[in-house]
Design goal:
The protein is α+β, with helices and mostly antiparallel strands and about 160 residues long. Helices cover about 55% and strands about 25% of the residues.
């Protein structure tokens, strides 16, 4: 009977040990699953953040125009299956200062930016003259017209000389 009691005690101890091992294994598996889930969430959040940053980085104003000082820009950013869209506004009160702001347009956890930009240093001749992009295009158009007139005059002179 001592042998039977010893065998029963060992069997009970083995059963209890196996139960403890099974419980510990289940707890570790559950912990691993929680950790894997959290890692996946961090990766997803990082990918979304990169897409948002890319969208905000793609916002750009147009050149300064004293008659149109306010610009609006839209952009998209994409990274590893995530995407984000951004909207930005730029205001230039003068040639040397620009105020900017932007936001992503996503479903939750939007990113925002604000900024101010100053030109520093000595201005170039065109800046000092106050020429805008529209002024430069007008000058180019006038030069093109003058070149066309000159070409016509050259052709007339060549025709006279050929006679």
């Amino acid at each position: 009977t001592n042998i039977d009691a010893e065998a029963t005690a060992r069997k009970d101890a083995d059963t209890k040990l196996q139960s403890n091992i099974d419980n510990e294994a289940a707890a570790r598996i559950a912990g691993d699953n929680v950790l894997n889930s959290r890692i996946n969430q961090v990766e997803s959040d990082a990918n979304k953040g990169i897409a948002k940053a890319s969208a905000l980085a793609a916002l750009h104003p147009l050149d300064y125009d004293p008659d149109n000082k306010f610009d609006i820009a839209a952009a998209g950013g994409f990274y590893k299956g995530e995407n984000a869209f951004a909207l930005g506004a730029f205001y230039r009160p003068n040639r040397n200062v620009m105020l900017s702001m932007g936001t992503t347009l996503t479903s939750g956890d939007n990113a925002y930016n604000v900024g101010v930009t100053f030109k520093i240093g000595k201005s170039g001749k065109h800046t000092e003259a106050g020429l805008t992009t529209a002024d430069l295009y007008a000058m180019i158009g006038a030069m093109q017209d003058k070149m066309n007139q000159q070409q016509k005059k050259i052709e007339e002179l060549e025709a006279k000389q050929a006679k």
